User: What shape does this take?
Amino acid sequence: MSDVTTVPPSRNNLRGLMWMLVAGVFATFMHASIRHVSADLHPFEIAFFRLVFGLLPLVPWFIRLGWSPLKTKRAGMIIFRGVLNVICMLAFFMSLSMTPLAEVTVLVFTAPIFATMLAVFVFGEKVGLLRWGAIGFGFLGAVVVLRPGFEAIHLGSALALFAAVVWGVCLIIIKSLGKTESSVTITTYMSLVMAPLSLVPALFFWQTPNMEQLLWLVGIGIFGGIAQLAMAEALKAGETQVVMPMDFARLIWISAIAYLAFAEVPGAYTWIGGAMIFAATAFITWRERTLKKPPTPKAEPA
Assistant: This one.
């Protein structure tokens, strides 16, 4: 994260909020474009092109930095993250092709909640009553969205939740990689590792895209690459607990596009459950940030 002693906190956070806004807008464009193209191309093939063309936004960094972003001492961890991320992306793209966009967006917001739970079991991190309460509240929000017992849980919703679980694991790995690797290095290797891995399942459903489809695929790659870089920059520029709530605005953008382009209208349960999930995620993020500050004699983990 940026050194807040060299930049005034208010300016630092404002920059972070603007980057997070950019990340949300471009992620929304990518998701809507995936839904559009998936009417003709299989999501697995779309995922492959997303990764290939996702390298385009990185070109300016390579022009400026040369080949230095490819230098890493943690190739094993990067490859492991790439394998998990391929699984996550394929499930996520499948869910986007068959489930209302707002619902997929809301369910994927649960990823940080799963990451917190996994940190307990994998790394033995201590989580007190406050964060366990937030975790429970977030899962209750997912129940509100899905309403099991009242409505059937569709395959697309199940895939979105599965993607969120795997993405939670990836968040932990990315958090670890971020201590030694730049956001450009992490993003570059995401595509370099995942593209050949995603090509294998894509070949089973391959259909050579026409020119119009190819343009959409290029757009998906660029949108996704910009969104990932912008989020990394947002988390570097500003305090996490300040900039992360801006990510909830993505539900507004995706709902607007879903209505205008696909005549999808999110129900009240999607909004209520989404607010609950994001409130839980925001609290967990804030609490984790608070506990990282220098401890006081009375400070206790929650």
Q: What stands out?
A: DSSP finds 13 helices and no strands in the chain.
